[in-house]
């Protein structure tokens, strides 16, 4: 039986029909490093689905055209990564509330001829923290470092878990204040400057600054790195190493954001195809791959 990028059905002994596979992509710039194709390929294998998930490099000023072209040629869905998450929300004909609140979308789907946007980053973080890492967010005191797009995307889902307190600390304090104001109706959120973080203790610190990805130092008071506090970096692999090493040196438990990546992918898969894949083995496989 030949393979032409389609699904084969042996209808009778000599008649074979090939249907085109459902096509998905991750759109970014750069995008060749993305683990999403490998993650989704494993999900599809696990669930017995035949899908084609690839990468799509869009020019920095050409996201809308690239995405529109993909969908006009029959594409079913796209994940969107840096730097296009804001463009993705703008492009869409409609957006889920959590994407609108986040001001960004990492998920697009073609439904009844309309491009719909969503954001699965926040729910991916919550799933990793609670399901994979076994942390209790309800009643926890959380410090969220950063007030850019990454922080904004996870605020509503974190507050949805009913923490006791969530402090957004940012180098530019006005941005933290704006964000806290925006999400105030969702839970006990407050703002602080990075160098004036309240010192009454946190159960969880989430690094949502771009310092890890950019390889820049993150200046934080040593007192934050306290035993009993869990440190989480939304970056993964080598990028997260410095933050995690500093935390572990102080006896803290710590994790990078690889689990968040896998969990947001699982949530995307569920939204596209109606079934949520198991993530444990995929996460273990990805961990090995990036080691
Ligand atoms: P992203 O979409 O990855 O969140 P972003 O919107 O540019 O990117 O936001 C980057 C975040 O990292 C911001 O909170 C930024 O702080 P400022 O608002 O003060 O710029 C934070 N950040 C970047 N470099 C930093 C550094 N060297 N130290 C501390 N925070 C930094």
Give the gist of this structure.
By secondary structure, this protein is α/β, with parallel strands linked by helices. The chain is built from 11 helices and 14 strands.
Please tell me about this protein's structure.
- With 291 residues, this protein is of the alpha/beta class.
- 37% of the residues lie in helices and 24% in strands.
- The chain has a 6-stranded mixed beta sheet, with helices on both faces. The protein has a 6-stranded parallel beta sheet with strand order 11-10-9-12-13-14, sandwiched between helices. It has a two-stranded antiparallel ribbon with strand order 1-2.
- Helix 6 links the parallel strand 9 and strand 10 (165-170).
- Helix 1 (36-47) packs across helix 10 (258-273), helix 5 (121-132) packs across helix 6 and helix 5 (121-132) crosses helix 10.
- Bound molecules: 2'-monophosphoadenosine-5'-diphosphate.
- Residues 146-150, 170-172, 175, 194, 209-211, 216, 218 line the site of 2'-monophosphoadenosine-5'-diphosphate.
